[in-house]
């Protein structure tokens, strides 16, 4: 199984920490966010990883080289212009299509930390065979995705604009769930990405769900998860690590 780490963002919410470094090299408990994510993927058995980079991209490349790629096979996808999650994946699609029998792959934000059971999530994906499986939780978020009782993506909910249904025949009682920034994706999806330039992969998911494709949510309510995009969240993750609530 291969993976992609999304690490190209400017990290504006982490300023001033990201004034002189990419967010991937911000530290928690003495380890960079990139090392934490790489270690997590390595423990899951992944050895082939592509990382997209834009903000201080050279720093990421130098960091990987100085650490001998942490014993992994790593490729860096440099973005001269930020492409967002969908555009970044589309640019890196070649990495997942070179094999004779491409397998599902993992897409993971660099600025999240979790104890989500990736093996269980992969089994869920393998058994149900959707185009994509998204780790989701029932927690507060200003932007949530809407899922029906079969865990099929049906739309999204924004605190600004309310519910926006993508699938017209979805049932009335939908669960608004927060996305965790971790996906397992079938390589079949890559040929279906028709969006151009910079775009969110969520827009692609919603378009495909509207067309009748299966995009599922994997409930991860019982697992530790934290967004590391804000300084106060880094501080909390540090405390959680010291208390043994999460391993970094």
Structural commentary:
With 248 residues, this protein is α/β, with parallel strands linked by helices. The chain is 27% helix and 28% strand. It has 7 helices and 14 strands. It has helices at residues 33-43, 57-66, 84-91, 94-97, 118-128, 201-210, 231-242, and strands spanning 2-6, 27-28, 31-32, 48-53, 73-78, 105-109, 112-114, 132-137, 143-147, 153-158, 162-165, 175-185, 215-219, 225-227. Strands 1, 4, 5, 6, 8, 9, 10, 11, 12 and 13 form a 10-stranded mixed beta sheet that branches. Strands 2-3 form a two-stranded antiparallel ribbon. Strands 7-14 form a two-stranded antiparallel ribbon. The longest helix is centred in the last third of the chain and has 12 residues, at 231-242. It is globular, with a radius of gyration of 17 Å. The two termini are 22 Å apart.
Whole-number mean pLDDT:
92
Order of helix and strand elements from N to C terminus:
EEEHEHEHHEEHEEEEEHEEH
Shape: globular
Query: What is the share of helical residues?
Result: 25-40%
The major β-sheet equals: 10 strands, mixed
Number of DSSP strands? 14
Number of H/I helices: 7
Strand proportion: 25-35%
State Rg: 17 Å
> Which structural class fits the helix and strand makeup?
alpha/beta
Weakly predicted, low-confidence segments:
none
């Amino acid at each position: 199984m291969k993976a992609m780490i999304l690490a190209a963002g400017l990290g504006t919410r982490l300023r001033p920490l990201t004034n002189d470094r990419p967010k991937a090299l911000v530290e928690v408990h003495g380890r960079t966010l990139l090392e934490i994510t790489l270690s997590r993927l390595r423990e899951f058995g992944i050895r082939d990883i592509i990382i997209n980079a834009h903000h201080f991209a050279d720093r990421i490349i130098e960091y990987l080289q100085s650490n001998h790629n942490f014993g992994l096979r790593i490729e860096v996808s440099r973005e001269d212009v930020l492409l967002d999650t969908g555009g970044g994946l589309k640019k890196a699609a070649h990495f997942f299509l070179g094999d004779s029998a491409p397998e599902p792959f993992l897409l993971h934000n660099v600025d999240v930390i979790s104890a989500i059971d990736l093996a269980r999530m992969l089994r869920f994906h393998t058994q149900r065979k959707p185009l994509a499986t998204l780790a989701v939780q029932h927690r507060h978020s200003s932007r949530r995705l809407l899922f029906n009782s079969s865990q099929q993506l049906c739309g999204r909910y924004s605190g600004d604009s309310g519910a926006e249904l993508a699938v017209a025949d979805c049932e009335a009682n939908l669960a608004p769930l927060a996305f965790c920034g971790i996906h397992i994706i079938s390589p079949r999806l890559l040929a279906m990405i028709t969006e151009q330039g910079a775009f969110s992969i969520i827009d692609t998911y919603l378009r495909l769900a509207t067309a009748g494709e299966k995009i599922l949510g994997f409930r991860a309510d019982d697992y530790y998860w934290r967004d590391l995009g804000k300084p106060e969240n880094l501080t909390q993750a540090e405390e959680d690590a010291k208390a043994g609530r999460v391993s970094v």
